[in-house]
Every structure is written in structure tokens, then in C-alpha cells.
Amino acid sequence: ADIVLDSVREIDEVYKEVKRQQKEISRFEQNFYNRNQIKLAFSQTAISAIIKRAFKENLSSYQICDTIFKNYELGLQLIKEKVKNKTVQIEEEALNNPDEYLNHLIRDIY
Question: 41 pairs with which residues across the strands?
């Protein structure tokens, strides 16, 4: 019975941590919007990948996003007028090669 209770507690802790990490991603999206007036929306697969990376690197999801997307503020300024009032979708591919993904976004807009 103790083993089952310990397992349930561990699952509950992991669940709470995943929820906390999801909130960190939402906070990053909101802060990015507040700074740039460009709305980012992470796909579910991107969110899962960010959370996995956060666990692996022992960082918050916010820190992972901040590191990966540090160049996006400048790059998206180039297309700001074209994406005004639109959401920029961020897929999992953006995590593996953020610069190439950004270039692809810019090319698609023009």
C-alpha cells in the first residue's frame, strides 16, 4: 500500500510540475506580446517538447523559451506590420532550429 501511495504522490507531483511549466510558457507568450505586440501561440507538440527540455535541463519552460526565441523579437519586427492582429504559430520544429524557422516565417509573410 505504501508503494502505491508513493507512486500516486510522485504522479501528482509530476502533474503539478507539468501544469506549472505550462503556465510558464503562457507567461512567456504574454510577456513576448507585451514587449512586441506580436502574439505567439505554441502548438501542443511544441509545448510538450519545451516541457521535456525543461525537465532534462533542470530549467523553467520560461527560461527555455527565452533562450530559444531570443532572436525572434528582432526578426519578427521585420514583419510586424504584416502580422498585426495575427498569431504566429510556433511548432516543434522551431525548438530544434529557431533561426531557420524564423527565416521560414519571414519568407512566408513576404
Answer: 89
Spacing of C-alpha 2 from chain mean position: 37
Tens-level pLDDT at each residue, the chain (110 residues): 667 666 777 887 888 988 999 999 999 999 999 988 888 999 999 999 999 999 999 999 999 999 998 878 888 877 777 776 678 889 999 998 998 998 888 888 77
Which string of DSSP letters, residue by residue, matches the chain? Answer: -HHHHHHHHHHHHHHHHHHHHHHHHHHHHHHHHHHHS-EEEE-HHHHHHHHHHHHHHT--HHHHHHHHTTTHHHHHHTTHHHHTT-EEEE-THHHH-HHHHHHHHHHHH-
Full-prediction pTM beyond 0.70? yes
Q: Which residue has the cell 519568407?
A: 107
